[in-house]
Amino acid sequence: MRHVFTHREEARAKGKAARRFIEAHFSPEKVARHLRDMIEGLQVRAAKRFLERSHELVAQAESDLVKGKESIVRATGDTQRITKWFQQRTSLG
Questions:
Q1: What is the largest CA-CA distance in the chain?
Q2: Which one-letter DSSP state was computed for residue 77?
Q3: How many Å apart are CA 57 and CA 62, to the nearest integer?
Q4: What are the angstrom distances between the C-alpha of 54 and each of 22, 43, 46, 51, 61?
Q5: Within a 10 A sphere around the Cβ of 72, how many other Cβ atoms?
Q6: Which of 4, 34, 43, 48 has the CB geometry, 3.0–4.6 Å to 11, for a possible disulfide?
Q7: Quick one: DSSP state of residue 54?
Q8: Residue 4: how many CA atoms within 13 Å on its side-chain side?
Q9: Between helices 28-76 and 79-89, what is the axis angle to 10°?
């Protein structure tokens, strides 16, 4: 603070330069644009994660169905009837 007090013109010039920098780089429009871009980026990443997780869940469900079918076939010994039932209700056959 002593330096500012004893070098007022230098401090005033730095203050004006800082003001111009803030006005140029942090106008309401630029800040809004930056925030919008950040939000859009977050939305895109969230959508990608959702789709990836959805695919994982579908794959797991299909795997569970196949395992369930195999268990039923083993328990009943009725491969044809169980396979026909699965074909009618799923795409797994």
A1: 98
A2: -
A3: 9
A4: 44, 16, 12, 5, 10
A5: 17
A6: 4
A7: H
A8: 6
A9: 160
pLDDT higher than threshold 60 for residue 93: no
Residue 71 structure tokens: 């268990």
Residues present in the chain in total:
93
> What would the two tokens of residue 23 be?
């006005």
C-beta of residue 70 within 8 angstroms of C-beta of residue 92: no
What tokens appear for 73 in the block?
A: 């076939």
Say which residue, 85 or 51, is predicted with more confidence: 51
- What does the block give as tokens for 42? 């977050």
Sequence-distant (≥ 6) Cβ neighbours of residue 76 within 8 angstroms: 82
Retrieve residue 66's tokens.
């196949």
